[in-house]
Amino acid sequence: MQSSPLSRRLAISTDDLPSLDPLVAVVLEMVSDPETSPSRLAGVLAKDVGMAARVLKLSNSAYYGHPREIRRIEQAVVVLGFYEIRNLVVISATFDLVRQGENRTLMQDLWEHQLRAAVAAKVLSARLLPAESDLAYLAGLLHDVGKMVLAMRLPGEYAEIAAETENRPGRAVVRERERFEVDHQEIGGVLLDRWNFPEALAGAVRLHHGVLGAEGAAPLGRLVELADILAHAVVKEEVLEAEEEALARFAGERRPDWPAWLKEIREQYERETKAVGGP
Question: What is the reported pTM?
Answer without folding.
Answer: 0.90
